[in-house]
Amino acid sequence: MKADRWSSDLDEITRSFRQEFGLLTVDELNWKPNASTWSIAQVVHHLVVVNESYYPILEQIRNNNYYTPRFGQIGFINRFFGKLILSGVQPTQKRKTKTFPIWEPELSAIRSDILKQFEDHQTELKQVICNSEDLIAQGTVISSPANRIIVYKLETAYDIIVAHEKRHFRQAQEINSLRINRS
Question: Would you say 142 and 65 are in contact if contact means Cβ atoms under 8 Å apart?
Answer without folding.
Answer: no
